[in-house]
Pantothenate synthetase
Amino acid sequence: MKIVTTVFQLKQEISQHQAGDKTIGFVPTMGFLHEGHLKLLAQARAENEIVVLSIFVNPLQFGPNEDFDSYPRNLEKDKELARLAKVDLIFAPSAEEMYQGEPSYTVRVHDRINVLCGKTRVGHFDGVATVLTKLFHLVQPTSAYFGMKDAQQVAVVHGLVEQFHFPLKIVPVDTIREEDGLAKSSRNVYLTSSERSQAPAIYKGLLIGKELVLQGERTKQKIVDEVSSYIMQHTSGKIDYVEVLSYPELINHEVISGKLIIAVALKFTKVRLIDNITIDI
């Protein structure tokens, strides 16, 4: 496993792999790896000859009141987990290396962002799209792997690849969960013990919504109300949103049909948790 920190080094490594006509699986992350990331790496490893992992806490994804400075980081542990996952190459640049100071050019996202997290995190997906545009050009992967825990991000990335004609495949990977159903997340470490015991109610609420759909319920508001009610009764958190939308278009329909997503964001004392379920009806 090789570790590089500069664009020049990365280009050198990628050019060698391309010369050998090898498939490249790419997993972009902000580090502090957990089982969710490891599942992405395992699938990339199974499907490609070379696996590239990026570790970069992207400042453009954080708003002025968000947790960039306190975002958890542990590069040494990440390196060890990557080695065990048989990663071939880690790209771990600094912000200065990625943006050469203040960014002169950024990508603006106009579609699929005015709902869910994008509604309140203005500019967040611009930051995601900007860094991924850079990384896709540098790594030139055959396939890139993203966790469905952040299903809105997956939808936006699909759009980015289609709009800019990147010659790569986006591979969505199912959410990894704790035994009690809580979605794995680097931010779970910020939960108090009481909040941690309540947090599985998010997924249980989503399952209630899914069951309503499978039983034939097609009225969006009925599903939203049932999911919201369960979560409010079983947690001390504040609901940011409960949404039912088409997927991946993320369009609001009062009467649902086709593939859809039920998504939740819940704010606890120091952390905001998101989770979702997709259903094809």
